[in-house]
Amino acid sequence: MDKHLDKIDSLNNRISKIELQKKNKNRVNIYVDDEFLFACSAEIIYRYGLKPGESIDISFIKEIIEQDNYIKCKNDALKLLEKSYKTEKQVYDKLFGKGYENKTIEKVVIFLKDYNFINDSKYADMYIKERIGVEGRNKIRCSLLQKGIDKSIISERLENMDSNTETEALVKIAENKYNQLVKRENDKRKLYKKLGDFLIRKGYSFEDVKHVVDKFINND
């Protein structure tokens, strides 16, 4: 792009042709004095009313390119969110990985938040609802932190989490694992440790795990 822009001072700075790209009808190629200068979204052409014969300067081109990058970045973000709901950090990281500049991504993120395409509080609620039946709050907290959710949002959501549902899930998971372990382990101390370690890894608190494991082992 830069080498094309460097040429513009030696040209008449007038658009000679605007043509639709063959492989992507949503993008156009801009020519100045019959030389290709840059490509951009067709939306930009309509927005600025560009047409052959009009003069164009470097500052205006850069403005167009910046707008075009924003449109492309926004479209990539929306396609990304079509597949699955994501956190702000996940969207940011994906767009950054595609080579967009920080200022462009930040502008797109503002758009996405304004129209509620991304909402970290909503994401946290959805994630907790999905995982509460298979994981404890410690593991859920860790996962949400890795996804970029703010600590205050996580703490608030976990405080509102249904403790009865979590406990019921813990008992069910413990029972299933216990029934597997007891078939091949007769030593109660080893059985206690294996079951306890498994439940801790699932994200349940030490106190809750001890209470449940004591119940299963003592009733054996």
Ordered list of secondary-structure elements with their pairings:
Layout: H1 2-6, E1 15-20, E2 27-32, E3 35-41, H2 42-48, H3 58-83, H4 88-97, H5 102-114, H6 120-131, H7 137-146, H8 151-159, H9 163-181, H10 188-201, H11 206-218
Antiparallel strand pairs: 1-2, 2-3
Describe this structure in words.
The protein has 220 residues and is mainly α. The chain has helices at 2-6, 42-48, 58-83, 88-97, 102-114, 120-131, 137-146, 151-159, 163-181, 188-201, 206-218, and strands at residues 15-20, 27-32, 35-41. It has a 3-stranded antiparallel β-sheet with strand order 1-2-3. Helix 3 (58-83) crosses helix 5 (102-114). The longest helix has 26 residues, at 58-83. The termini are far apart. The mean pLDDT is 88.
Pick out its properties:
3 strands; 220 residues; mainly alpha; 9% strand
Helical content, roughly? 55-70%
Mean pLDDT: 88
Please state the overall shape, judged from the principal axes of the Cα atoms: rod-shaped
Count of individual helical segments:
11
Ranges where pLDDT stays below 50 over 5 or more residues in a row are none
User: Main β-sheet, in a few words?
Assistant: 3 strands, antiparallel
Q: Span from first to last CA?
A: 73 Å
β-strand percent reads 5-15%
Helix-strand pattern, N to C? HEEEHHHHHHHHHH
